[in-house]
Structures are given as structure tokens and as C-alpha cells.
Specification:
α1 packs antiparallel against α2 and α4 packs parallel to α5. 32% of the residues lie in helices and 28% in strands. By secondary structure, it is of the alpha+beta class.
């Protein structure tokens, strides 16, 4: 196992992963954050270099030790060889399975291997259902999207984290709440505020460059609020040179239609992704 640190090596990996999108997009997004200030303290591990089979983007171990609440253990991965991935996951130098861990944006084919490695180390797993993944390739497609000038567009604040997390299935996890707080603090976000300064529609970008937890309060729906939020956030992310992508529950036809209106390209169903949360068995 090697941790890539030099800009030359990271740049070379970037060019390789770019050609493997969408399968590699979560690792690619994390890599770009590493190369651009790395505010959320990620690092890249490979099985070998320069010829590699597996690359894992994870939180830096020193950060997990010194700031475990602010920066939960998070990782994502891309592999050309499932048996090689298995070997990497079983190596305790790669992922510390003694800590609560979020594994994000992984295809079905990785799930059993990841669960095997984690449960053999005494972890309980919570698996979230299949999600469709979509990628926004064309910044020019939203240049002429106009926002309602009467709306108050702003960025999320850390104090908004509990409100942001509340509507979602994994809202009960302390891991999720701390993760959202760190993303809001360090990374792009967009929201619309009511007259009292409270968010009524929002989304943010995480350290893998994915747009997350888009939501509009029920009483503000069908008003174009989310279109305004998405336009603002997509422009921010594209301007940074980062990929724009997200995931949506396969049965959420309303959200799917909205993403299509923004010219997102949906990844074929066979690449549907999962989110896994591991906690120490009680």
C-alpha cells in the first residue's frame, strides 16, 4: 500500500481517473480537493504505483485521531480488480475498521467485499438503498438560467446542519451530522432564506465534489426555489474546475425530472450506487 503525496503523481492519477468517469467519479472528486487546498484532509492510497489496480480515497489518519468528531472516517474507492480490492480492504493500514466509517458512492459489485472486511473486524453495517448517479458535463448549459431577483440567495451556515440533515433517512447518525457540519464549513453550498433568515431550500457540495441533500420545505415547493439553488451551486462548483454530480433515489421521479431539466446525464442502472455506514458492534 502506498499513499500518493507528490503533485506529479496525483496529477498523473487524475488523468487516469478522468478517463474512467463515471465509475471513478467519487475518487476523482476527492483527488481534486486534495490538489486544491485539501480543506477536509483527504489522502489517496493505491495498491502500487505507477501501475495500480485499486485506489482508495480516505480521511487522513492523523485527522481522525485529532478531530474525530469534526471529520468522521470517510472513504470511497475505484478498482479494476475485485480480488485486489479485497486485499486492500483487509489491510488495516488502509482502512481503520476500529472506527465508525462512512463508505460513499460505491457500485453493487464492491458491497459484499466491503461488508466482509468490516464485519470481520466487528463492525455493524447499515446499508442505504440503491441510488441512481448522474453527472453534469456542460457548464455552458446553465449560463443563461435566470434567478428570481426577489429571492434571497445565500450560503449555508454550520448552525443550519441539523435542519439540513433532518429530512433524510440517515439523519439519526451522529456521523452524518458531523460530516454535514464540516462540509458546510469548508465547501460550496447554496440556499434560499426566508424573511427571518432561515433556509427554506438548500444543497451543498461534499469533499468528493458531490452535490448533497437537496431539499425544499414543503410549503415552498413548486416555486422554482430548487432550480435557483442548483443554478447557484452548479456554477460555483464548475467555476472551481470540479466535477458536478449527485445521486437520487431511483423512485424519486420528481427529483429525476428536475435533474434532467439541468441536462444531467444519468449513469446506466447497472452502476447504481450504495452508501454504507459502519459502527462498532455494541
Amino acid at each position: 500500500m502506498l499513499v500518493l503525496k507528490s503533485f506529479k503523481d496525483l496529477s498523473a492519477l487524475k488523468n487516469i481517473l478522468l478517463k474512467q468517469i463515471p465509475q471513478s467519479i467519487t475518487v476523482y472528486g476527492g483527488l481534486l480537493h486534495i490538489m486544491n487546498s485539501n480543506r477536509c484532509s483527504l489522502e489517496i492510497c493505491v495498491d502500487s504505483w505507477p501501475n495500480f489496480n485499486t485506489v482508495i480515497c480516505r480521511r487522513q489518519n492523523k485527522v481522525l485521531t485529532s478531530h474525530p468528531v469534526q471529520f468522521p472516517n470517510l472513504c470511497t474507492m475505484f478498482t479494476k480488480d475485485l480480488e485486489n480490492l479485497r486485499a486492500m480492504l483487509m489491510d488495516d493500514r488502509v482502512i481503520d475498521w476500529t472506527q465508525d466509517t462512512i463508505v460513499r458512492g460505491i457500485p453493487h459489485t464492491y458491497c459484499d467485499l466491503i461488508k466482509e472486511a468490516a464485519t470481520s473486524s466487528g463492525m455493524d453495517v447499515k446499508e442505504f438503498k440503491d441510488y441512481s448517479q448522474m453527472v453534469h458535463h456542460n457548464p455552458g448549459s446553465i449560463l443563461h438560467n435566470e434567478s428570481d431577483p426577489t429571492l434571497k440567495i445565500s450560503s449555508l451556515q454550520v448552525s443550519h446542519a441539523e435542519l439540513v440533515v433532518k429530512p433524510f433517512a440517515y439523519s439519526g447518525s451522529d456521523l452524518t451530522l458531523s460530516h454535514v457540519r464540516s462540509c458546510i464549513q469548508h465547501l460550496p453550498s447554496a440556499c434560499i432564506l426566508d424573511d427571518s433568515g432561515n433556509p427554506v431550500s438548500w444543497s451543498f457540495s461534499d469533499e468528493l465534489c458531490e452535490m448533497r441533500m437537496a431539499f425544499t420545505l414543503p410549503e415552498y415547493r413548486r416555486t422554482g426555489h430548487m432550480k435557483t439553488v442548483f443554478t447557484a451551486l452548479i456554477k460555483q462548483i464548475h467555476a472551481m474546475g470540479f466535477p458536478v454530480y449527485g445521486h437520487v433515489a431511483e423512485e424519486n421521479t420528481t427529483a429525476i425530472n428536475m435533474f434532467k431539466s439541468f441536462n444531467y446525464t444519468f449513469v446506466p442502472g447497472k452502476h447504481a450506487i450504495k452508501i454504507l455506514v459502519f459502527k462498532r458492534a455494541s
